[in-house]
């Protein structure tokens, strides 16, 4: 009977170590993504930088990668209330009107954000967007604030 108990104990230890290793790996993967709280903090940091340094310098800093406003999968975007992109991690989007841009489900997410900004000063928005880190379309939770008639935003991608 003793060898059977020893085998069970060894098996139990192996299972415990496997579960612990899996949990640590999952935790490390979660840490590689920005959180909604970090996205909100990045927007506030961007607005503070904009206030201290002016529009031209701030917009130039927001698009630098690597830069102080790009962290893992977090990055700042800035739009006019009319939907013109002034800052984005994707340089192809800067300078274009994005009101007709749709997400993976057909949602006009820029239009929705600008309509919300016309009525309020800040908020959260859910949509799907291309994650520049893993190159996949993923659900995203975007925090935005209106300042100086511009909409500053950053979003956290949700794990699939």
Write the layout of secondary structure elements.
Elements (H helix, E strand, L loop, with lengths): L1 H30 L4 H18 L1 H8 L7 E2 L2 E7 L4 E3 L21 H11 L2 E10 L4 E12 L2 E8 L3
Antiparallel strand pairs: 1-2, 2-3, 2-6, 4-5, 5-6
Helix pairs in contact: 2-3
Keywords: Cell membrane, Kinase, Membrane, Signal, Transferase, Transmembrane, Transmembrane helix
GO cellular component, one term: plasma membrane
Protein name: Histidine kinase
What's the architecture of the largest domain, going by CATH?
A: 2-Layer Sandwich
Runs with pLDDT <50, length 5+?
Answer: 10-29
Overall mean confidence score, pLDDT? 85
Largest sheet: 6 strands, antiparallel
Terminal Cα span: 46 Å
Outline: globular
Strand content: 25-35%
Number of helices: 4
The SSE order reads: HHHEEEHEEE
**Looking at CATH, which topology of the largest domain would you report?**
Beta-Lactamase
Number of domains: 2
Membrane topology: Multi-pass membrane protein
Pfam families: sCache_2
GO molecular function: kinase activity
Protein name: Histidine kinase
């Amino acid at each position: 009977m003793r060898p059977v108990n020893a085998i069970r104990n060894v098996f139990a230890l192996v299972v415990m170590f496997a579960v612990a290793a899996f949990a640590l790996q999952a935790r490390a993967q979660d840490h590689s993504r920005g959180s909604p709280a970090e996205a909100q903090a990045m927007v506030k940091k961007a607005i503070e930088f904009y206030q201290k340094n002016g529009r031209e310098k701030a917009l130039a800093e927001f698009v630098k990668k690597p830069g102080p406003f790009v962290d893992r999968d977090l990055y700042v975007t800035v739009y006019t209330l009319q939907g013109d992109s002034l800052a984005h991690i994707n340089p192809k989007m800067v300078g274009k009107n994005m009101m007709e841009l749709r997400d993976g489900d057909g949602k006009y997410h820029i239009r929705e954000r600008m309509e919300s900004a016309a009525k309020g000063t800040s908020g959260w928005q859910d949509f799907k967007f291309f994650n520049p880190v893993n190159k996949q379309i993923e659900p995203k939770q975007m925090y935005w604030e209106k300042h100086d008639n511009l909409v500053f935003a950053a979003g956290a991608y949700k794990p699939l």
